[in-house]
Amino acid sequence: MEQKPILEVKNLQISFQLNFGTNHVIRDISFHLNKGETLAIVGESGSGKSVTTKAILGLIDDNGCVEVGSCLFRYQKDNKDVEIDLLKCGKDYLQKNIRGNKIAIIFQDPMTSLDPTMKVGRQIMEGMLDHKKVSNRKAAVKRTLELLELVGIDLPEKRINQYPHQLSGGMRQRVVIAIALACEPDVLIADEPTTALDVTIQSQILELIKDIQKKTGVAIIFITHDLGVVANVADRVAVMYAGKIVETGLANEIYYSPKHPYTWGLLSSIPSMSGQNEEILSIPGTPPNLINPPKGDAFAYRSEYAMDIDFEEHPPMFQVSDTHFVASWLLHPDAPKVSMPTVLQARIESYKKRGDQQ
Amino acid sequence: MEKINKEMFTRISTQDHQVQEMVFDTGATFFKDAWKRFRKNKGGVIGLFAIIFILTMAIIGPWLGTHVYNELIAEHIDLPARVPFLEYFGIFDGSVNGFNPYIKKGLTDVYYWFGTDNLGRDLWSRVWMGTRISFFVAFVAVTIDVVFGITYGLISGYFGGKVDLVMQRIVEVISGIPNLVVVILLVLVLKPGLTSIILALMITGWISMSRVVRSQTLKIKEMEFVLAAKSLGASSFVIIAKEVLPNIIGQIIVMTMFSIPSAIFYESFLAFIGLGLQPPVASLGVLISRGYLAMLTYPHMVTFPVVVLSTLMLSFNLVADGLRDAFDPKMKGF
Amino acid sequence: MKYLTKFVSLLLVSFLIVGCTGGKDEGSDLVLKVAKSSDVISLDTHVATDGVSFEVIKAFTEGLVEYDADGKIIAGVAKTWDISEDGKTYTFTLREDAFWSNGTKVTAGDFVYGFQRLADPDNAHQYSYLVESLKITNGADVIAGTKPVTELGVKAEGDYKFVVTLDAAVPYFMQLMTFPSFHPVNKAFVEAAGDKYATTVEFLISNGPFVLTEWISGSLIKFSKNEKYWDKAVVKLDGLEFQIFKDYQSAALEFEAGTIDVTAITSNIVDRYKDNAGYTEVKLGYVWFLSPNQLDVTMQNKNLRLALAHAFDRAQIANNLLGDGSIVATGIVSSGLVTGPNGKDFRDDSGAFQTMDVAKAKTFWEAAKTELGVTALTIELLVGSPETDTGLAVGTAEFLKSEFEKNLPGLTVEIKTTIKKDRLDLMNTGGYQLGLTRWGPDFADPLTYLKDLFETGSPYNYPRFSNAEYDGIIASVSPGGDLAADLNVRWDTLKQAEALLLGEAGVIPAWQTGTAMLISSKVTGIEYHVVGMPGYKRATKVE
Amino acid sequence: MLKYISKRIFWSIITLLIIVFILFLLLQFMPGTPFDDEKLTEAQRIIMYAKYGLDSPFWQRFGIYLKNILLEGDFGISLALQKNQLVQDIVLPRLGISIRIGLQALLLGTTMGVIYGVISGANKNKWIDTITTFVAVLGVSVPSYVFALLLSYFFGYKWRIFSITYRHGAPFWSSILPTISLSMFVMAQTTRFLRTELIEVLSSEYIKLVEAKGVKRIKVIFRHGIRNALISVVTILGPLTVTLMTGSLVVERVYGVPGIGDLLVEGILTNDFNVIVMIAFIYSSLYITMNLAVDILYGIIDPRIRVAKGG
């Protein structure tokens, strides 16, 4: 695994210019994505996870601005290895070479992410034709039918000529996935692809994504607010809070030995899968306003484990293992020893058991 | 980092720090926010200033000039604009079509800033008085039709069902007749004059307001806070007054700002076809329609009222646009 | 603004590219093009009442007699005419070469039918009252409906002899025979056309110098020379065109561009054209006057009326406000209307009344206030707002208000504007105080004003002026009256009547209209008259 | 769909009848009569009233009128403007002129409006947007007759490029200025509307997704943005027609266009009842038909509605 990561985000800072001031949405984050793996970025809404991925594709709104940071992307162009900084290469370059072509994205709400006035077939073909992935229209149609089949849509010949509103939510999301796969990208960003769907459809889509990864080997960044969703999908997980990554590690590390109180909170708030009457804990309070980011650890304001230092200084990344990093003063040697809530502990135990059974 | 010491790692209660949370209050700050956004809109601000300027001139303008309002001086008829000082630059020097009637008539030290009309009346004071009247007509008409439109829209939208159906049929019928036709006929039936014009404008003006209010009400009445109030047993009146109305006030203000220029336009059009106010009372529309008849010969008679009228309407629209953007949450930055 | 101009140009350019071919008027030879400010209301000689309609009718029909350029009566369809000794019987001998445009002959029967149709009460023709003023035998009874139209004192003796019998000698009879209402009407054609008669060009025949070929409502009235007209040798024009321009300024610009040969212009733009070679002022017979309604208690006060009569400067109105050739009305009978046995114009001979005299006005005003028992008074001045042919009625009213209020302290004048129809309605029914209105003479005799407007009981007596002495005088000089026969005595008595009327301030004349015209120097021979319509028959144009 | 349309048509007819009734009622109270003329006597006026059936009671008159309109398409005769002529004979030829100029203005206005709207919306908050927005505000706020005055002053009088008034002999050439004057508002309104719509569309998720596909900005705007924004522009065609009608009243008067707007004003000023009712009737039916047409059209061009109703 000495291969360089396909995508490497370093010290990214993004802010949005609002009428009232500057909203510091992303405050110095770094992460990487290896070839063929699935990285889940998890956090509450407003934590900055969507903005990060949009920034990678240069899709942030006009009032947004990348202040510092780089995003190295390595890909093959004309059989040569290319390494570029996506944040500096300009929109034209992104449009021509990257978007859709190398990095594709799936949005959260399939209801709004398809052009309502265009037949789905055309929407799928659009990218291939524009990027000259297929030689002609006929080939495009053929490929589209294949894609539709790949994403599990029945009667592709019929669907290709239908409008989005004629399809169900799940089908639409499958179409969106088909669009994303149209140009055989290296990286697929799935921005909460299942949030807007029914629970049953959710798992189908998750299965589909997993399946596709198996078939195509595409690297996936999976963004979600729900740790439960990615449990079976993610190789690695990064937990974001208030524009920062607070904990990152392999999926097992995050699920079975989380270290950050926020991760605890997130794990506790996963609705029970066993259907038993387990206690579901929610995290009190709301994420902070980032126009005037709080001093120190932003989560401290909501944490029952807060310490004085949390309000003074932002914690550095403490390394737990080779792959597991946590930004919390609780891991400081001087900090009092606290452990995760017992409810969560019980839960994790049950997960482990189930995991073993599987 | 050097400041870190052990004591800092004591656990504390979160309550102590709650105060540091940014508190965003809605309600009172809604208008403040809107105002802040509005201030960023250059067009709106310019428009607002223009309105304030014209309004001020409408109030004090007639007395700023050197001539008496509405005084007919037969020797001074058809004089073009002449302003001291500016005349040395070749503008506003009182000449028209290549000759200077001031000199021709021996009126060497007479100055009419906007010139005079064909009865020898000072146009400066008439234009500003006319502006005042146009303003007055528009404000009164709009105020009344806004009140009526809001009431109608609220009732129709809030109560819905059969009430709404009947009320909307009525609106449909009324809006099926071109406004201008109704206004002209009403003014005639009621005999031309200030009151009739206001009344006619009122009768036709409320429709669009009622529509906007209705659709907003329909939206808002399904919202949770209204449903909550309902389940708590609040009376319809209280709900409308306390819950619905405050939430559509932005839209109402915007609509009002759009209604004013249209009222001014209708009034001026009536004047243009000769069905205006009773002379010698003159609105901008009256001045334009009279000046138009001499446009070829003495363009100044039509120019000044047209410029004021157009500026006024433009400004109201700019302000209305600005307000709409300021109130419209869709346009909010993020 | 600068951007706007640019933007508009841009629009234009794009529009031009879209494809347009500028259509220009096809140049037909010797067509006189006249601008008119309003459209024809009716082509039916009897239904028509307005100037433009009459002007058009006059161009395509011809009566028994016509005016020449100097206003002398000359032969029309009638070759010759005889007046009986007592002046009560007129016998017209018609020419045999007069034809309708459909080829039928113009006969005495057409005149009989025309007269009868005019008088028929069922039609309620506005000008039927002329039959009465002409004293045509049984005229009054026919109009009142008590006798059938066949009893009217007109008859045809054969095809070419038309006889009119009157109850009394009428000095202005021949003049009225030029009036379009007395033009012949072809019975067979009218009856065949039914309701459609004279509504479109197809349902119309002519016997005048021109034939109407096209009438496009609101824009154009086209004539061509009538090849069947008996006097076609005199007609030099190949055609005539009335183009309708609602706005005088546009018409004037078209004149400047040379696409229009004749147009009237309003006082607003007279200044611009005063030095134009084509500028002419034409005196018209219309007299504008203030009508004090004597049904109104306040206006019954003679001193008040006199105060008003003397309190305003008529010269300012005529010369400064209007400046289009209008003149001060020194009396109610218009200037240039009629010349008396002494060779003098009635206006000049009768003298000037109600001249402006502020001191006198103030005296009357004081007296009026005392009599009315008031110190201040508000009167309402009724004026038609968009009076199409006189855009300045409102301006004049404003001037009057200012003059009255300035010269008669304590008097407030409230101007009430309304549409013309409503103004006339109010004046007809007496629902007004002081009204600004006008009267155009129908025939060249002072009676057209003095009798029709101010005799007790006259339907046109808007002021409700009623004075037994005045009525006596008018009766005596009217056709059939004691003094009607002796022209000199009649003349003096008419002057006396006017003096009485104006001395009472039964009416307050203001000005007599003139029209400023722009007539191309290429055009000659259009005949304008104080009474009656312009004649285009002898007009010509050089290319 | 068919049921919906027939229901709409039914209501439209009812609405029209009510409108005719309201107009009739209003005219009842008009001051003066069509027959007031300087030289018409009171007695003659009464005869005229009887002759034209104006002396009968209101309901009877209204009944007869309605019957004539509905059964015979007869709108009566003109009482004052062009005496004794069938009103439809006067109105219909003029209607042609009005409709032609109206359509020209609609075409020019919407075309220019779409162009400006796209330029403006696609370049949100750039200088070109500021300029087009300003022009659009100017267009909606400056009264059409002021435009008419300006255009006729500069193009007709100062520079003598176009005919200052409508001329029968050159119907297109002389209708350019009226068309432009009328189209200003349409242009401005379309620009404003399209701009807002386009901005909204361009900031929508699906446009983001199209961009994420790596489609060129210009293609994004044309292939997806305009397409979606234009659909809703159809909805303002109804209100725009009304504006055109109102505008035609004004503009026809300034340019002396012998259209129905001008005729209506003349009719009102001369109490020509039948002319007024017929023109108002035409206006109302045009408006109602236009609204209906827009609704149907909207259903046709927007696949969301099309299928929803069809299936």
Describe this structure in words.
- The complex is a heterotetramer of chains A (358), B (334), C (543) and D (311).
- Helix content of chain A is 31%, strand content 22%.
- Chain A is globular, with a radius of gyration of 21 Å.
- The two termini of chain A are 27 Å apart.
- Chain A has helices at 49-56, 91-98, 120-130, 137-150, 156-159, 169-181, 199-216, 227-230, 251-256, 261-268, 342-357, and strands spanning 7-17, 22-33, 38-42, 64-77, 80-85, 103-106, 187-191, 219-224, 236-241, 244-250, 318-319, 325-326.
- By secondary structure, chain A is α/β, with parallel strands linked by helices.
- In chain A, helix 3 (120-130) packs across helix 4 (137-150), helix 3 (120-130) packs parallel to helix 6 (169-181) and helix 4 packs across helix 6.
- In chain A, the strands form two sheets. Chain A has an eight-stranded mixed β-sheet with strand order 6-7-8-3-9-10-12-11, with helices on both faces.
- In chain B, helix 2 crosses helix 4 (123-159) and helix 8 crosses helix 9 (236-272).
- With 334 residues, chain B is mainly α.
- The longest helix of chain B is centred in the middle third of the chain and has 37 residues, at 123-159.
- Chain B has eleven helices and no strands.
- The two termini of chain B are 35 Å apart.
- Chain C has helices at 2-19, 51-60, 108-119, 129-133, 139-144, 173-176, 187-193, 248-257, 267-273, 302-310, 314-322, 346-350, 358-372, 393-407, 420-429, 447-454, 468-477, 487-503; strands at 31-36, 65-67, 73-75, 78-83, 89-94, 154-156, 161-165, 210-216, 220-225, 239-244, 262-265, 279-292, 327-328, 377-384, 411-418, 434-439, 508-519, 523-524, 540-541.
- Chain D has 311 residues and is mainly alpha-helical.
- Chain D is built from 13 helices and no strands.
- Chain D has helices spanning 2-28, 42-51, 58-72, 87-122, 127-141, 144-158, 176-202, 205-212, 217-233, 237-255, 260-269, 273-301, 303-310.
- Chain D is flat, with a radius of gyration of 24 Å.
- Chains in contact: A-B, A-D, B-C, B-D, C-D.
- At the B-D interface, helix 5, helix 6, helix 9 and helix 11 of B face helix 1, helix 5, helix 6, helix 10 and helix 11 of D.
